[in-house]
Specification:
Belongs to the multicopper oxidase family. It holds the Pfam family Cu-oxidase_2. The chain has 553 residues and is mostly beta strands. Strands 9, 10, 12, 14, 15, 16 and 18 form a seven-stranded mixed beta sheet that branches. The longest helix has 20 residues. The chain is globular, with a radius of gyration of 23 Å. The two termini are 44 Å apart. The N terminus is likely disordered. The structure holds 2-acetamido-2-deoxy-beta-D-glucopyranose (6 copies). The site of one 2-acetamido-2-deoxy-beta-D-glucopyranose has 5 residues, from strand 6.
C-alpha cells in the first residue's frame, strides 16, 4: 500500500513537472470594446465608461496560472490603459498598464494585454489607470480560483459574488480633472455605489444577490472608489473572513469590515436567517457626512422586504486599527505556491534596506500637490520603464531623487519630478509609511505582495520593530495608514521590473503621491524578466530608438 502510494505520488510529481515543461497553461481570451455611455447611477444622467456596454466591466474569472489575453479597443476620445490591481505580473511589468510602464493606447486603436496569473489565488480588480478615468467607471472584479490540485481551506460556496464598492461623483471624470488641474481638490463625493448601483434602503430596488436558505456564499468586497474608506456589513448576518488580497486568513467572524481604498476582502455568509430580503450596507468612513448605499440580497424562499433599519457603521479609526490587528494569516492553509515571495518565514530574514516614506500636501505655484519625501511625482511623456529599457533613462528621470528618509525639516516645499528608486534584486526590504497628515492613507505596491507587520499611532523608530508581527501578518498588496500614524511592511524584491507604489486615493496619486521602484536583475536573463512584447506601442523619446537586443536565455 505504502509503496503503491509512493509510486503514485512519484507519477503525479513527474506528470506535473512534465506539464510545467511541455504543457502550456490554459488561455482565456477577452475582447473589450471600451466606450462612453450615459447612465444615472445616482439619479442624475452622467457620462460613464462602459466595457462591452457594461458598467461595471465584466468580471475576469480565472484560475491560478491561467494566461489572460485581453484585447482592448479604445473607442474613447482619449488615450487609455488598464491596470490589474494586485495581479503580480511576475517578470512582466510590461503588462502593468500604467503611464510609467506603458505607452497609452491611442483612441481608435487596440492593444492586447497578455499576462499570466502566476501562483496567485484570491480577489483582485482592474481599473483604467489613465488620467482620471477610474472616476468614470471601467472597473471590474478579477477572481483567481485555485487550481484543482490545491485545496482551499473551506468548502466550495454555493455561489461567488464580487461586490465592488466605492464613493462616486456625479461630475464627469473630465470635470473632476479640470478641478485638480486648476489646483483644487475633488471635494466631497456625491454617493456610494455597490456594483454600479446606489440602493436607498427603501425596499424599491431589484435584488442584486440571491441566496438559497441554508447555503453558504462567498462575497468579495473591493473598494474601487476615489477618496474614502468604506465600511461594509450585511443586515442580520455574520461575515466569516476567509481571504484577503490573495492570502487565506484565520477565519474570524465580523459584523462589519472596513475596506480601505484599493483593498479586497472575501467573506463567507450563510443564509441562516428568517427567509426575507436583507441589505448589504456600504458607507463612507472617517467623513463628516456619512454617505450610505444598500444592495438587496433575496432569499429564494423569502417573502418580505428587508427591514428599513440599517446596521450602524463603527465610528472613529481606533476601531479600524483594532480590526486590522485581528487579521491573521492561516499558516497551515495551502497557497497557490508553497513559499510566497520566498519568504514564508519572513520574520527570520534580515532586513537589507529600510525605506521611510512620508506623504505630504502643499501648494506649488498656487496649486495643490501631494508628495512623497518632498517630491511630487509628475508623469513623463516617455514611460520610465521604457526609458530605462532603451538606455535613455538619463533623458527622462534621475534615479533616487528622494532619499530613504523624509527630509529632516518638515516643510511643505516640494519639487516636481518623476521618482524612480533603484533597488537591488532579491533584497529583503522594510518600507515605513509615515502619515503626518489628518486623513487616512492607502498605499498599493504593484508587482509584489508584502507583510504588513505593524501599524501604530505616532512616529516610527527602530525600537518599534519589537512590536512587529513577525509570525502571521497577512501577505497582501494594499495597506492603510491612519492619521498621524505609521505602517511598516516587508517584502522580498524578487520580481524584476519597474513597479509602482501609489496612493489609492485618486486625487493624491494624480497630483503626485506615487513613485516607481526599479528592480533589475544583474543576470539580464529571461529567467528573471521577459522581453518587451512585440506589440507594445512606443512613444516619447524611445519611439525612434532601436529596440535593445532581447534577452535570449
Ligand atoms: C463598440 O461599441 C460601439 C458603441 O456601441 C459600436 O459603435 C462599435 O461598433 C463597437 N465596436 C466593436 C469593435 O464592437
Ligand atoms: C468561474 O470559474 C469557476 C472555475 O472555472 C467556475 O466553477 C465558475 O462557475 C465560474 N463562475 C462564473 C460566474 O463564471
Ligand atoms: C488588434 O486587434 C486585432 C484583432 O481584431 C488583433 O489581430 C491585433 O493583434 C490587435 N492589435 C494589438 C496591437 O494588440
Ligand atoms: C487553516 O487552514 C487549515 C487547512 O485548510 C484548516 O484546517 C484550519 O481550520 C484553518 N485554520 C483557521 C484558524 O482558520
Ligand atoms: C542576520 O543578521 C545577524 C546579525 O547581524 C546574523 O548573525 C545572522 O547570521 C543573519 N542571518 C542571516 C540569515 O543572514
Ligand atoms: C541605478 O541603476 C542603474 C541601472 O542598473 C544604474 O545605471 C545606476 O547607476 C543606478 N543609479 C544609482 C543612483 O544607483
Amino acid at each position: 500500500m505504502g509503496t503503491l502510494k509512493l509510486i503514485l505520488f512519484s507519477l503525479i510529481s513527474l506528470l506535473s513537472t512534465l506539464m510545467m515543461v511541455h504543457g502550456e497553461d490554459p488561455y482565456l481570451f477577452f475582447t473589450w470594446n471600451v466606450t462612453y455611455g450615459t447612465l444615472s447611477p445616482l439619479g442624475v444622467p452622467q457620462q460613464v465608461m462602459l466595457i462591452n456596454g457594461g458598467f461595471p466591466g465584466p468580471a475576469i474569472n480565472c484560475s491560478s496560472n491561467n494566461n489572460i489575453v485581453v484585447n482592448v479597443f479604445n473607442n474613447l476620445d482619449e488615450p487609455l490603459l488598464f491596470t490589474w490591481n494586485g495581479i503580480q505580473q511576475r517578470k512582466n511589468s510590461w503588462q502593468e498598464g500604467l503611464l510609467g510602464t506603458n505607452c497609452p493606447i491611442p483612441p481608435g486603436t487596440n492593444y492586447t494585454y497578455h499576462f499570466q496569473v502566476k501562483d496567485q489565488i484570491g480577489s483582485y480588480f482592474y481599473y483604467p489607470s489613465t488620467i482620471l478615468h477610474r472616476a468614470a467607471g471601467g472597473f471590474g472584479g478579477i477572481r483567481v480560483n485555485s487550481r484543482l490540485l490545491i485545496p482551499v481551506p473551506f468548502l466550495d460556496p454555493e455561489d461567488d459574488y464580487h461586490v465592488l464598492v466605492g464613493d462616486w461623483y456625479i461630475k464627469s471624470h473630465s470635470a473632476l480633472r479640470t478641478l485638480l488641474d486648476s489646483g483644487r481638490t475633488l471635494a466631497k463625493p456625491d454617493g456610494v455605489l455597490i456594483n454600479g448601483k446606489a440602493g436607498k434602503g427603501n425596499g424599491k430596488d431589484e435584488p442584486q444577490f440571491t441566496m438559497q436558505p441554508g447555503k453558504t456564499y462567498r462575497y468579495r468586497f473591493c473598494n474601487v472608489g476615489l477618496k474614502n474608506s468604506i465600511n461594509v456589513r450585511i443586515q442580520g448576518h455574520i461575515m466569516k473572513l476567509v481571504e484577503l488580497e490573495g492570502s487565506h486568513t484565520v477565519q474570524n467572524e465580523y459584523e462589519s469590515l472596513d475596506v480601505h481604498l484599493g483593498q479586497c476582502y472575501s467573506v463567507l455568509v450563510t443564509a441562516d436567517q428568517e427567509p426575507k430580503d436583507y441589505y448589504i450596507v456600504a458607507s463612507t468612513r472617517f467623513t463628516k457626512t456619512v454617505l450610505t448605499s444598500t444592495a438587496t440580497i433575496h432569499y429564494t424562499n423569502g417573502n418580505g422586504p428587508a427591514s428599513p433599519e440599517l446596521p450602524e457603521a463603527p465610528v472613529g479609526w481606533a476601531w479600524s486599527l483594532n480590526q486590522f490587528r485581528s487579521f491573521r494569516w492561516n499558516l497551515t492553509a495551502s497557497a497557490a505556491r508553497p513559499n510566497p515571495q520566498g519568504s514564508y518565514h519572513y520574520g527570520k530574514i534580515n532586513i537589507t534596506r529600510t525605506i521611510k516614506l512620508a506623504n505630504s500636501a502643499g501648494m506649488v505655484d498656487g496649486k495643490l500637490r501631494y508628495a512623497i519625501n518632498g517630491v511630487s511625482y509628475v508623469e513623463s511623456v516617455t514611460p520610465v520603464k521604457l526609458a530605462e529599457y532603451f538606455g535613455a533613462a538619463d533623458k527622462v528621470f534621475k534615479y533616487n531623487i528622494i532619499g530613504d528618509e523624509p527630509p529632516a525639516e518638515a516643510s511643505d516645499k516640494m519639487t516636481l519630478a518623476p521618482i524612480v528608486l533603484n533597488a537591488t534584486f532579491r533584497n529583503f526590504v522594510e518600507i515605513i509609511f509615515e502619515n503626518p497628515e489628518k486623513s487616512v492613507q492607502s498605499w498599493h505596491l504593484a508587482g509584489y505582495s508584502f507583510f504588513p507587520v505593524g501599524i501604530e499611532p505616532g512616529t516610527w523608530s527602530p525600537e518599534k520593530r519589537k512590536n512587529y508581527n513577525l509570525l502571521d501578518a497577512v501577505s497582501r498588496n494594499t495597506i492603510q495608514v491612519y492619521p498621524k500614524s505609521w505602517a511598516a511592511i516587508m517584502t522580498t524584491l524578487d520580481n524584476a521590473g519597474m513597479w509602482n507604489l501609489r496612493s489609492m486615493s485618486l486625487e493624491r496619486q494624480y497630483l503626485g503621491q506615487q513613485l516607481y521602484i526599479s528592480v533589475l536583475s544583474p543576470a539580464h536573463s529571461l529567467r528573471d524578466e521577459y522581453n518587451i512584447p512585440d506589440n507594445a506601442p512606443l512613444c516619447g523619446i524611445v519611439k525612434d530608438l532601436p529596440v535593445p537586443t532581447p534577452y535570449s536565455v
